Amino acid sequence: MVPETIPALSTARVRRCRCRTMHIITAAHLDKDAVRSVHLCAFPENERDIVARLALDLLAETTGPPVLSLAAHYDGTIIGHIAFSPVKIDSGEDLRGYILAPLGVRPEQQKHGIGSQLVQHGMRVLAGNGVHILFVYGDPAYYSRFGFNAETAAPFTAPYTLHYPFGWQAAVLNEHETPRSPATITCVHALCDQKLW
Question: Are 52 and 36 in contact (CB under 8 A)?
Answer without folding.
Answer: yes
